[in-house]
Amino acid sequence: MSSIPLRSTVTGPDDTGARFGPPEWALTGATALVWGSSFLLIGIAIDDVATPVVPFARVVFGALALLCVPAARRMLPRSEWPRIVFLGLVWMAIPFLLFPMAQETTSSAVAGMINGALPVFTVAVTAVFLRRPPTAFRVLAVIVGFGGIALISYGSIQDSGGADARGIVLLVLAVLSYAVAVNVSTPIQRKYGSLPVILHVQLAAVLWTAPAGLGGISDSTFTVEAVAALAVLGALGTGVAFALYGLLLARTGPVRGMIGVFFTPIVATVLGVVFRDEPLSIISVVGMMVVIVGAAMTSRPDRVPGGGGGGGGGRFVAGRRQARLSR
User: Fold this and answer.
1) Residues 6+ apart with CB under 8 A from 67
2) CB of 4 within 8 A of CB of 230?
3) How far is residue 201's CA from residue 144's CA, in Å, rounded to a whole number?
4) Of 324, 301, 322, 318, which Cα lies nearest the Cα of 255?
5) How many CB atoms lie within 10 A of CB 199?
6) Model pTM?
7) For residue 269, which of 94, 116, 58 has the smallest C-alpha distance?
8) Stronger pLDDT, 105 or 156, i.e. the higher one
9) What local confidence, expressed as pLDDT, does residue 63 receive?
10) Hey, is 255 helix, strand or coil?
11) CB atoms within 10 A of CB 21
12) For residue 77, how many other CB atoms are within 10 A of its CB?
């Protein structure tokens, strides 16, 4: 007599099922190191240049950096252009403008904390895209990670005076825009590769940001510090880091690809201690340990009962095969 099989579980369609191993952690660490310094660079830039210049300069320097890589110059089919143009708006043009606008009245600590909520927003937006609620473990994992970020930011928020309502709203809109973008971009990057997709998105973002950016030049003072900050922010933070981040999204899925965001406040805090002699509180150290726990939990594939609904199991098999081929 045949035995009755136990109820099976598969990975949800928002995950590839690939193991989050050393290559994935290396990609996560690299993006976290670059993005952890982005708020400092934005702060340096807006001291001298008009706010609309920042997103324009970021995508210009980012596109120039990727144009140096032959693999990035591969053309994409014309059928993908509408999505590329849309991503240029929601993934880069809008959030790249909203973040410096928010930092005019918002401390870097608050900006970092709300940016650290990106995995939470991504879980919610991914659930809407897939028409399937996340598992309880996935929700717990991102809440733990965000809780650690809140602890890291608490002391800085108390010291800096926090933020006003306008700044918080702008930051929330920017993070929501990112969450939508990663869900739209992930399948395209799995199909065509990270480099050409990111380059084309940045070129589209150049067109979106050019009118306001060029208009702001007359109100700017291009000091050596501001230009250097914009160049590093664009070439590394927008060019190289987004390409690495896109590769991570394609390998792991939109939610697990967000893990690097958990570590950006840690990087920012360490940079402040090392280069600006900022104090390091015990509660921040505790927060760092909580973040590491949350990141480890989030790195696990999201297991859902049965077929995941609406053919989720089939999408998992295809995603897992693609992940193996990309290694």
Assistant:
1) 73, 199
2) no
3) 32
4) 301
5) 25
6) 0.73
7) 116
8) 105
9) 94
10) coil
11) 11
12) 8
Q: Which two tokens stand for residue 140?
A: 């717990």
- pLDDT exceeds cutoff 60 at 62: yes
Give me the pLDDT at residue 321, please.
42
For 177-193, the pLDDT digits (tens) are 998 998 898 889 888 98
Q: How far apart are CA 27 and CA 45, in angstroms?
A: 27
Task: Identify which of 175, 198, 176 has the alpha carbon closest to the alpha carbon of residue 186.
Answer: 198
Is the per-residue pLDDT at 53 higher than 90? yes
Please name every residue paired with 11 in a beta bridge, in sequence order, or none if there are none.
303
State the Cα–Cα distance between residues 315 and 70, nearest whole angstrom: 31
CB atoms within 10 A of CB 72: 21
- Which 3 state secondary structure label does DSSP give 173? helix
User: What is the pLDDT at residue 240?
Assistant: 86
User: Which amino acid type is present at position 67?
Assistant: L
Q: What pLDDT is attached to residue 202?
A: 95
Q: Residue 326 is encoded by which pair of tokens?
A: 């990309």
What is the DSSP secondary-structure string of 48-91? TS-TTHHHHHHHHHHHHHHHTSGGGGPPPPGGGHHHHHHHIIII
Tell me the average pLDDT of the chain: 77
Mean pLDDT of 106-119: 71
Residue 280: per-residue pLDDT: 65
* Tokens coding 275: 């280069």
End-to-end CA distance of the chain: 42
